[in-house]
User: What shape does this take?
Amino acid sequence: METESEPYVRLATLRQLHQVVAELNTARSLADTLQTVADGVVNGLGYELACVNLVRPDGDLVVAAFAGNPSAEALITGRVGSRDAWERRLAMGESWGALRFISYTEGWVLDDDDVPQWYTEGPEPRFEDEWHPADRLFAPMYASGAGGELLGVISVDRPRNGRRPGAWGREALQMYAFQAAIAISNARLRANMQRALVRLEREQQALRASEESFRQAFEYAPSGMAVAEMGGDQHGRILRTNDALCRLLGRPASAMRRYAFSDLVHPEDIGTLLRTSAEGGRAELRLARRDGTYVWVSLRNSVVADAADGPRFLLTHVEDIEERKRRELQLAHRASHDSLTGLPNSAELRARLGARLCRRPHAGQPSAVDSLDAAYEHGFDFGPASPQTDDGFDHHVHTVAPEGREGDVDDGTKGLAVLFCDLDGFKSINDRFGHHTGDAVLIEVARRLTNGVRDGDTVARLGGDEFVVLADGLGRADAQDLAVRLRNAIIPPIRVDGRAVRVGASFGIGWAHCGMSADEVLHSADQRMYVEKRSRAKQHRRAG
Assistant: This one.
């Protein structure tokens, strides 16, 4: 089970990865792109050394960029390794997804081949997953077009933490290699397009030749391309598209000529599109497919100009980034959700709860100090100030709670109920049957809790065998009924590996209202859960 700090570490790593990936698209040339790829591994992924080996037209790989050690860079940059030697490397060792790891125990057979390499020194590993100076880790980069040809290989060395990368580090390096391959392909494509545009400015005979070159690059580009009008009443109208863009959007070329990009963009992204309709404009937005769905694309504009008449039309490059966006959403979900049950985790629970609360209690609502028992003595952190507009009036819809205390008559007020759930007997299941059975029980309890609440309610795992339910718009009686229903849903036997196990559940009901912090709300519900648990234990002893 992951600790509460791991989602924050993953989120920080994700942000760093996003930053170095964004820098890939800022390079102005292929050479700059290659060096940016190497620098990104060192600056963003936690390795001390990185080498980019680029496939040449003859198939061999040349050291095109190096980062992390100026001495090694001067020694091997520009040197060439044969394709056969590289193929042998990429067939050895362990396959970590798309990565290839060769341990020092078998990598010694590669010491004398013709692949340029550097030698690091260091002590022998002291534990199993410690990085050895002779370990090798390679991240192949493949073109996203048909065939998936090899573009190059990123070699990395010396993880800063001294350990072989775990699952998260491997996925980050694999994603980075995927984005680096796109950046290198785009850099090559931009170089080809720029050369074609230069030829367009030459005399008529050279112009015709360059137009043919442009046509070839446009038609057979692996990613989407479009030519649109620039200026006038028809600004933005699509004049021409290539097959890749038509396939991406599921629309024939004849139909595409009836639209402008503004007709195809998602309504929420229209502002983004308008800000990029100029030279060098770039954006990530959604375009509509023929079937009504939307696909995420990276859109980049270049102005194709006539020397005499000035700008004539926009050349738009459209790259499919749906897979990257999907991965980004997955990574963001992992950072905010429990890896075992899939429920929102503690950080996400506090964020959702904190978003409903301001620091000032609503008029007539008891303060946070009044709401908590005297035994809760501690310092309060009330969070951000309540939202106000320029007119000085508070437009925040305050969260209120039913008045009175537990057991009082329901006054009809509907509030945000916070149900703290602690499983009874779970530790004995873990001790007797093992963590596999315990994990299965937690997963099933999470499922039963989720099925027992309304759409829009939140079920979160706080940690261990503790769960929290946020249910808005409930009165006191409603909250009591919900707690009973959820407890009854948990009690039936849970079958794991052919055996039936049972857990009970204790619920404490707290109420969130403005003037409290998220931690205060959870603490209040937690305390009420323990009061209920002690009361039930006392009743059980009396009955016995």
Notes: The two ends are 37 Å apart (CA to CA). Residues 367-393 have pLDDT under 50 and may be disordered. The longest strand covers residues 294-306. Residues 144 and 543 are 70 Å apart (CA to CA).
